[in-house]
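Holo prediction. Input below; ligand is magnesium ion.
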Amino acid sequence: MMIKEAIYIKSLTDVKDQPERLPQALLLGRSNVGKSSFINSLTHRKNLARVSKTPGKTLLLNFYLINQSFYLVDAPGYGYARRSKSTKDDFIIMIESYLLNNTDLKFVGLLIDFKVGPTKDDLATYHFLRELGLDIIIIATKKDKIPKTKQFKQEKLIKSMMGNPETLISISNVTKENMEKVERLFLEKLMEENVDA
Ligand code: GTP
Ligand code: MG
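Structure of the complex:
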């Protein structure tokens, strides 16, 4: 099985405005980590999610319907330095209200930069998500930016900085390395029979 169809459904600022109920996966990561590129790689599309060089300021959750079966939810990037203090707070409030009592949420994909490694914001977000008891898949992007001979060591370093997490996959949106592996994992987790009635 693979991702065959991906449709942009809507963007919302208020979690109350969510579309029809289906399993969801939330993608989180700081600005410029490659979230939009990752959505495009995962869905085999060039322009489904906007890839920008100017980090976003809009607090929107973007819903993409995949294979008529589940949603990928793209959140705005966190840790954008030029965002005002009050906007930062709004971001946290929005994500928290989305995460709390969301029985459709199957897991969170936390994107970090393979070359940069986990930042302070990444680690704080990771611990916050763990405290909520969420299933987390860590996706390290931009693997192609590190020479092949140094990739193993870099992955080991990232893992140790994050306390050796259960699931960490390093990918590249340029070479598409490991994207099949990620796609399989996402489909497994999102197409599982929904046991909670
Ligand atoms: P915001 O929407 O601003 O939060 O950013 P984003 O996380 O959606 O990042 P986006 O996908 O827009 O990518 C940011 C920049 O990184 C773009 O210039 C991409 O082309 C580049 N980029 C994304 N993924 C990769 C990757 O795997 N390798 C390399 N070399 N560049 C990448
Ligand atoms: Mg983006």
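Residues 29, 31-37, 51-53, 55-56, 77, 141-142, 144-145, 172-174 surround guanosine-5'-triphosphate (ligand 1) (CB under 6 Å). That is the main takeaway for now.
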